[in-house]
Amino acid sequence: MRRPRPASWLAVASMTLLTSAGMGALAPAQAEAPTTLAATTSSSRNLDVSSIGRYVALGDSYAAGPLVPVQTGQPAGCLRSNQNYPSVLAKSAAQKDFVDVTCSGAKTDDFSAPQPVNPGPNPPQYDALTGSEGLVTLTIGGNDIGFGDIIQKCVSVSSTNLLGAACKDFYSRGGSDELTGRIDGTASKISDALDEIKERSPQARVAVVGYPSILPDTGPGCYPIVPFSAGDTAYLRDVEKKLNAMLAEQAKDAKVDFVDTYTPTIGHDACQVPGRKWVEGLVPTSPAAPVHPNASGERAMAAALGEVVGVPVASPAGS
């Protein structure tokens, strides 16, 4: 029996932030051209919001909305919000048959096996699929590549070389980039998950919802507020884009929808001021888990999803 596994962000929340010593020596990086990932959809059809049928939301903490008020649902260890993007979409569609089994810390393995959160466990997420679904959404893959451990490692090493990229150096110390390898290795897990969802819910429209912009899309970042050097900011930005690109490719191969939440959230990353910030930093300024979307971020993700599936969702304030 597996021990309860804490959500991936909990290690981040408990870290001591690094000091700003040596900040003055940090040279601004050259601004990069913004890169975007276009949404790919399996069809141009919209959902008839009056006849979606059953809507089931699967996924990890970016779908669950940990610490975003109001936390609701069972088990409580999943830290699920009634303002997460699936709930916002369901409310916008006046959807009554809505089942949210998203859970903080979830990996693809937790779709098919109980997830040992505390209190918990969360039943296998696939168990929510009965075959009557008209819509299934999922955000998954970040924990498969070790999201929480990556953030923790980069916070601990990046300040040791503010003019370089100590985190990038750590993950490429074997001669190739370890995180690229993890993303490549997760692709088959996403493919298998989509095959299983399509088999269990053959009539459903399926949408893979990507990850929003966590770091600024250009420039050196905002050390020490988000304590990554300019080089590591660029590296981690690229890692997230690779993860989203992999998810988009797997969705395309499975002939399901991919929802790009990165592009519409550019300029609302963790380096922005409160009110404009839709993803919180290591010390949140709005109720949310560290390095996760706040309520505005979840609404922005819902709006991006709504554009793909044809459900109008009001954008968050400050967009």
Give the amount of beta strand, in percent.
5-15%
End-to-end Cα distance, whole Å, is 45 Å
Q: Order of strands across the biggest sheet?
A: 4-1-5-6-7
Main sheet record: 5 strands, parallel
What structural category arises from helix and sheet content?
alpha/beta
How would the global form be characterised? Answer: globular
Number of strands: 7
Provide the low-confidence segments as ranges: 5-44
Which value, in Å, is the CA radius of gyration? 19 Å
- Give the rounded overall mean pLDDT: 88
Order of helices and strands: HEHEEHEEHHHEHEH
Helix percent reads 25-40%
Number of contiguous helices: 8
Descriptive overview:
The protein has 319 residues and is an alpha/beta fold. 30% of the residues lie in helices and 9% in strands. It contains eight helices and seven strands; from the N terminus they run αβαββαββαααβαβα. It has helices at 10-13, 61-64, 85-92, 147-158, 166-171, 178-200, 230-254, 295-309; strands at 54-59, 71-72, 80-81, 98-100, 133-139, 205-209, 257-259. Strands 4-1-5-6-7 form a five-stranded parallel β-sheet, sandwiched between helices. The protein has a two-stranded antiparallel sheet with strand order 2-3. It starts with 9 loop residues before the first helix and ends in a 10-residue tail after the last helix. The model is unreliable at 5-44 (pLDDT under 50).
